[in-house]
Amino acid sequence: MVSQVNEHLGIPAKHIVEWTQAFVRHPSPQTERFEHEPQVQSFIGERVVPLVQELGLPWRRDAMGNLLVELGPERADRSLMLMAYAMTHPANRMPNPFAGELIEDASGAYVRGRGVSEQKGSLAAALAAVKAAADRLPLRGRLIFTVSTAGETGRHDAALSICDALGFAPRLAVIVIGTTSRVALANKGRIDAIVTVRGKASHSSTPWVGVNAIDGARRVLDRVMAVDVGANKHPGLGQATLTPTAVRSWPEATHTVQDEVRLVFDRRLLPGDDPQVAFAAIAAAADIGDPWQVKTEFGPFMYPAEIAPDGAFMRAVNGGCRRMGLRRRRPFTAMARSTLASSASKAARPRCGGRAPSNNGTPRTSALPSPI
Question: By residue range, what is the domain housing residue 215?
């Protein structure tokens, strides 16, 4: 594979590894500021933009700070967007998350660090491919390379901002994520249903004076988790799911009956599911009545997405591989989580036929290195 990189891209694998290490060494974690997190913005502005400038590629940033590189004729019937992204999952308990260590063993060489297997290694590879296309290919269509400020937000805002800045919806899109060179054909969508239960605070020595919001939250949890998500089963994605992912209570004081609890439910959607119907079922179940007050909000969400294995996108992918002397790409479905594919398809509906890869449907781990 390394020899193929050198032959087809004209960029030494050593450089791509160095780019990857530099990306890992610049933290860009998800925080409560999401796309506006300064580390995410500086990752693009201080780490990616200088490299793009060094490679001689034209670039600009949109109102959200997303990076756009645009190549080929402006008014072309054919267009392809490669959407990389900056934001990583928080480092959590991962040791040395931003060291960008190079690990070698009998199976080969790897770069280890936060985000490297998910998107930062793929970002380096995609940038090399865009540079090769700019230098070596007569582009008859529009090629757009973007680095989104999103990645872990679970919403479409950054993708919509990118398409607004472009002024059109690319016909095809690839979400640049590590997939061991496979292509995800489908992914689940997601709704965050945010349920707030309110009661009345009191001292814990006289609980009968108050209305304990924790008791109400327990009833909400039991009722919502009994909601029927349907028996439909997708051949690759499996069934829809409903999972509680966060609980927090207030006031943050000792010996106090809590007067507010907030719960977040993660409702995964299959292609064809109606997000409003799914949300309404959760809201109805959460309405437990007196003596509590309950409010259910429609939080961040992403559409499910799916494309055909023999459609325009896969034909283009395999045709390109054939011309470059590479093997055909194997498709799969991203079972574990929603991906930015749904952002691309939402931003470009109804024309965008792109598909997002995901990390082979596996959950995030703290020490999964990226092979070179």
Answer: 189-302
- What lies within 8 Å, CB to CB, of 166 at 6+ separation is 68, 70, 144
The reply to whether 137 and 273 lie within a common domain is no
The residues of the chain scoring below 50 in pLDDT are 1-5, 335-367
Q: Please provide the DSSP assignment of 227-288 as one string.
A: ----S-EETTTEE--EEEEEEEEE---TTEE-SEEEEEEEEEE-TT--HHHHHHHHHHHH--
- CATH number, residue 232: 3.30.70.360
- pLDDT tens sequence across 296-331: 999 988 888 888 888 888 888 888 888 878 777 777
Residue 31 exposed, middle or buried by CB count within 10 Å (0-12, 13-18, 19+): middle
Whether residue 247 sits in one domain with residue 262: yes
The pairing of beta strand 172-175 with beta strand 256-257 = unpaired
- Judge if 325 and 272 occupy the same domain: no
Contact 67, 340 (CB under 8 A): no
**176 and 120 in one domain?**
yes
